[in-house]
Recover the amino acids of this structure.
């Protein structure tokens, strides 16, 4: 792309980059190496005992094996485990199997029946590694376990997980204990208030399409049954986005409308886009460019979404990555665009 002098006059950032900074270099002082006296090392005298003696060459498998055995005997005293055993005060009851099934429309209509065990379940062993189950799918694990009087006398009862991929919602005896996200990180919930002496019911809802890591540091989320891939803008944060797609929500805005926005929070021009996204079947509202990936996973440069929408029955889903917060009262374009997004004008 060719840049003319007239273009630079209108480009504030180009003018800043073109400013001369020679006056700053005058104050720099380049340190000089210190002057050291010359010295000569004596030659002709050496200590024979200090001379290097190479070790015997291990040129056969038998020699190598004998050398390893000698080294193992030499280091064996230093490898002994002298740590005293730590006495555990916990009572553990491992769960090694449970019932499993995919989520159905009936579960979304009546989750209470799911907690009660409705539906057709399959018995699986833990840990359970299932294959791909489709886009935005969820599934359930359910089992019963016993809580003894000795467990209750400890003062607290916990359900512990060594890992769930990716998002887990945990229920005990119909009560929601909490949720966790994070591949194979360990986590636990205290269910002492919900614990019953005798049989208890554990239900875990798992969504492995809720969020995932992919090439280039991107991640995903599921909206309206579609998986959206969120990624950082190529070459860093953006001070502008394009409204050239011609969507009705941006009708009437000029080419400079979504460019160089002032941020009242910091009282200066600040980026208006940090991340963009990609989604099949969504109608673009505002677009940007993204790509490049990283050194190990380069990706092609292409158009990405800064804002988009998807019709869903009589309604519409809208997602906007542009930083509107804090700018709608002072920026007419931001205020009008936000109003249109909410009202559907």
């Amino acid at each position: 792309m060719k840049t003319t002098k007239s273009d630079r006059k209108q480009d504030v950032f180009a003018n800043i980059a073109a400013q001369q900074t020679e006056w700053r270099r005058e104050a720099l002082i380049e340190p000089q190496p210190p002057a050291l006296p010359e010295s000569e090392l004596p030659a002709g005298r050496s200590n024979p005992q200090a001379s290097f003696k190479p070790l015997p060459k291990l040129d056969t498998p038998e020699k190598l094996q004998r050398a390893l055995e000698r080294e193992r005997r030499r280091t064996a005293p230093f490898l002994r485990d002298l740590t005293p055993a730590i006495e555990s005060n916990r009572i553990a009851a491992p769960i090694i199997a449970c019932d499993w099934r995919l989520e159905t429309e009936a579960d979304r209509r009546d989750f209470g029946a799911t907690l009660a065990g409705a539906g057709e379940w399959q018995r699986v062993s833990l840990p359970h590694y299932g294959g791909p189950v489709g886009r935005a799918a969820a599934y359930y694990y359910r089992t019963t376990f016993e809580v003894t009087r000795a467990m209750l006398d400890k003062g607290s009862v916990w359900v512990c997980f060594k890992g769930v991929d990716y998002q887990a919602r945990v229920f005990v005896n119909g009560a929601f204990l909490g949720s966790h996200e994070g591949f194979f990180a360990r986590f636990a919930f205290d269910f002492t208030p919900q614990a019953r002496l005798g049989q208890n019911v554990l239900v875990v809802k798992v969504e492995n399409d809720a969020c995932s890591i992919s090439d280039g540091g991107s991640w995903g989320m599921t909206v309206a049954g579609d998986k959206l891939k969120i990624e950082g803008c190529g070459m860093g944060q953006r001070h502008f986005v394009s409204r050239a797609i011609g969507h009705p929500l941006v009708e009437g805005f000029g080419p400079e409308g979504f460019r160089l926005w002032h941020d009242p929070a910091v009282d200066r021009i600040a980026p208006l886009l940090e991340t963009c996204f990609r989604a099949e079947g969504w109608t673009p509202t505002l677009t940007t460019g993204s790509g490049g990936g990283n050194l190990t996973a380069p990706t092609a440069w292409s158009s990405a979404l800064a804002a988009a929408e998807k019709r869903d029955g009589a309604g519409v889903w809208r997602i906007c990555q542009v930083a509107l917060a804090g700018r709608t009262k002072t920026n007419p374009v931001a205020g009008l665009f936000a109003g249109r997004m909410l009202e559907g004008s």
Q: What stands out?
A: The helical segments are 5-10, 12-18, 22-25, 61-75, 105-109, 111-115, 149-153, 332-343. The chain has a mean pLDDT of 82. The first strand starts at residue 97 and ends at 102.
